[in-house]
Amino acid sequence: MIRLKDTKHANTADFLSSAIAIAEYYGFSQLENMKTGRMNAIESEKRRAAKAIPETEITYARRDERALTSSARKCAAVTRGLAEAGGVLAYRLVPQSTGNPATTLELHVVGTASAVAEALLLVVANAIIEESGMTDRHLAINNIGSHESSNRFVRDVSAYLRKHIESISPTLRPRAAIDPLGTLVQLIERGHPAAPRAPQAMEYLTEEERRKFWELLEYLEVYGLAYELTPSVLGSRDCWAHSLYEISVPDEETGGRTAIAFGGRYDPLVSRFSGGPSSAAVISINCEVRGRTKVDRSIQGLPAMYFAHLGGEARRRALVVLEMLRRESIPVHQSLLHERIGEQMAKAKQLAVPYILIMGYKEAMENTILVREVSTNSQEAIPVADLPSYLKRHHVGTWKTRTTA
What we know:
Largest sheet: 8 strands, mixed
Number of domains: 2
Shape: globular
Number of helices: 13
Strand content: 15-25%
């Protein structure tokens, strides 16, 4: 959990206001304000069958997983019938009902299986934490694979726990037989000496799962976001599949590190409420409640530009460009969840923007970007490093804000 004394913010409201402004820059909207879609007859029947399974049968390995259930249900509702939109970006504030007073900012990307979902969440979360003044942060990433591929992992974890059962707390031993993964999570949290030698999930990934995982790591490499592959980042298989990640900061009191954000791909959970296979990823940032809590919202002007990417290399480099423009307070529309250029250009036309920023493979390799003026169809190649000064010099899209309570 983020302690406000470690940030530049005086109260919870200041932190959340800054965090939400960054999320909205990247296109996230408040989940509660989104309209829910209708189900057809087949979807309704599938969902009824899924709801027939009580939520009590969901196995939670971590304390913070229970809150995700409610969000997964809401995300499934708003994305229903929106497959053509390429995906949905949503945020949600969730008060913590137990323990120390805290609130959680959840960021969700729903409706796409692409690794760009997790990459976008990590980049936005990193920007939020960096903006708050916490410079020493550590990103740990793991991958537990699909349900099928992780069966061997859980089987071996179960065998490992049986071998060390005498060293496990008597209160935890019954759980080891029915929930090996949850037991291992508990041992890791308690610092049990046997935990570091337990089987590691990444060793059980298929070649296809390794390739998809590498796609996520490529995004982080290109962006320049440091990370460490950490087998101790785990969660329930009823909630999570594939990637899991955790961001931590130093804890002066204990001399160790404190987790302030956690997330991953929660396809199994969202599929339960969608009536069929669905994709979703999340990152949850936890902050203590102190002082004022009512969030001040900044109403932004409409961007005058749309960023369009063509090809995988340009898509990977897009996050660098977007973060650079955000830091310069230059707004821009984007559709990173779309893969095809035709879909993006149609969106730019719908938004009626006067300028389009275009990055293809050639531009990505040359570290340039095309700035196209829609009215004349003229365009100019600009080095990425010079883009903010070029746009400001030509008075393109400077973001002016006003704050409301």
